[in-house]
């Protein structure tokens, strides 16, 4: 089967699904449009977490996004996940996600304050030198830690920049987009410097380094590669040693992590695409769609068909 891309969820789909109707005026302000809708291209928005979070129905299910995003917290906390890892964001932290990465938000505390910002490639490339400049930002790498912990002084500087960006976004000057672009690039460059200069949070043992390398690799390759031997080869160790290290550090064997990624990818496809079950099995690298259906039910308690129906036609009590 010809390789197909996992579908994406754009900002309009996200807000329609998770934002309550009471927040429409806020959405119109964030999108800078009367109907609260974002254009297909050249997307930018910045919003205060304390204004929006109370109108969002958490948790937010995993999905791929069409936009780059980051959130900075002044107060409170948020719990976010990617394909395999769970991250707790607290005060004076900033979290980045690249377009195309799978992410979810489990929870956001009621006292959370800060900023949430989204932009697409078309917007930011008007101000960056080229695509490679965007791709080389370390916190947008597929295998990177998306979190940056800031000192109180550094966090104050981020807040000042974000407040300036918000003010520009809300005004009606003809050159505001250029000003937003300049300020946004300044923030990204400052965070790149901060990321590069961050000291290691701890000393890692050899098994922990191996397990971390595996987790990074499996997120990128699970659809095409499902054997422990492949990942062991990527790390220049034996499959037995890889499994021992991964199980020691995570409590689960290599195969369980591979399956976790595949099940997550399957959920995204079932929710966001019109592909039939056989096509989804093929996209995920399963030659036998019946085997895929059995595996999915074993790990979710739903058949792929019933999971899709539950998501698209939820029971309202």
TrEMBL record:
The protein's name: Helix-turn-helix domain-containing protein
Organism: Mucilaginibacter celer
Keywords recorded for this protein, A-Z: DNA-binding, Transcription, Transcription regulation
Classification via InterPro entries: Homeodomain-like_sf (IPR009057), HTH_AraC (IPR018060), Tscrpt_reg_AraC-type_HTH (IPR020449)
Key word Transmembrane present: no
Keyword Phosphoprotein: no
GO molecular function, one term: DNA-binding transcription factor activity
SUPFAM superfamilies: Homeodomain-like
Stretches assigned to the HTH araC/xylS-type domain: 212-310
SMART domains: HTH_ARAC (SM00342)
